[in-house]
Give the backbone structure.
Amino acid sequence: MVHKAEYIWIDGTEPTARLRSKTKILDDKMLGAAPDDLPIWGFDGSSTNQAPGDNSDCVLRPVAVFPDPIRGGDDILVMCEVLLVDMTPHPTNTRAACAEISEKYADMEPWFGIEQEYTFFKDGHPLGFPIGGFPAPQGFYYCGVGADEVFGRDVVEAHLEACIEAGIKVSGINAEVMPGQWEFQVGPGGPDEISDHLWVARWLLYRIAEEFGVTATVDPKPVKGDWNGAGCHTNFSTKAMREGYDPIIAACEALGAKAEEHVRAYGAGIEDRLTGAHETAPWTEFSYGVSNRGASIRIPWQVEVDKKGYIEDRRPNANMDPYVVTKMITDTVCSAAS
Ligand code: ADP
Ligand code: MN
Ligand code: MN
Ligand code: MN
C-alpha cells in the first residue's frame, strides 16, 4: 500500500516569501520514517522565483514531519528546506543559518513562543467589514463574543483542531482588535523547531481557510487608517533568563545595541506598522519596559514579580520569516551573554 506526503517549502517571492506544496506518493515501507530518511525531491524553481528557466531544478530536503490532519490516516505533512543541486542551501533558504545558530547556542537552551496575527479576507475586504464601508471603530472586537463582534470563528476552530492533530506546539488563540483579525500562538520551543511549527501552522491556516471560501493573510497593515496592524510578537528566553532577572535586562540591552539591524529583518513594510500608534513603538526608536505595550520589548509584569522568565519582542511583523527572526535574536542575545 501507499500513503500521501505533502511536501511543503518556502518560495522566492519578494519581498515576502510564500508557501508552496505538492504531493508525493510514498510506499508504506516509509511509514514512521524520520525526516532524514524520507526521500529528497525536486521542483521547478523557475515557477517560484528560485531559478532561471534554463537551469530550473531545485531540491527539497525534508526537515520535519507531522501527521496530516486534513487527509488523515497515515498521510503526512513534510516541511522541507530548499537546496541547490550541489546540496548546499539555496539563497532563499533561511532555515540553514537558523539551524546552525540553534546548534551553536544549544547549551543556553533558547526558547521561543510566537504570536501570529492574521486577517481573513472575503470578496476583497476583511471578513466582517460591510461591503463598501467600515464597521464600528475598534474597541469591542478583541477577545469578543457574538455574531456582531467576531467573524470567522468556525475557520479558527478548525485550524486550531488541525494544529493539535498535527502535533504543532500551538499554545492558544484569540480574536484580535479588528473584525476578521485573529491570532494563534506557538511555543515554547527551540529556534528552528518552533519556526518549522509556525510555517506549517501558516500552511494549515491557508489550507483550511480554502475549505471555507475565505483567504487568510499575514499582511502587516491590511487596512490603512485607524486600525491596528498585524504583528508576530516573539517571546524569548534562555535558561539563564528563566532563572534570573539580570540576564533578562542583559538581553534587552543586547537587542537595543543592534536595534536597527533587527528591525530591518523583521518583515517587509515594518515602517507602516511600527508608527508609534496602535500599541507599537516607532521603528526608529528602541525601548524596553515592564508591561509596556508601547515599547519595542515588553517585560511581562509577572516576570518582574518573579524576577525571572522571558521577554516579548513586539516589533516583528506578521509577515516575518521566523527562521530569520529567531536566528537573529538567539545570535544577538546569546553572543552577548557568552
Ligand atoms: P500576550 O500577552 O503578549 O498576548 P500570548 O499569551 O499571546 O501573550 O503569548 C505568549 C507566548 O509566550 C506564547 O507563545 C508562549 O508559548 C510564549 N512563552 C511563554 N513562556 C515562554 C518562555 N519562557 N520563553 C519563551 N516563550 C515563552
Ligand atoms: Mn497574544
Ligand atoms: Mn495580539
Ligand atoms: Mn503579545
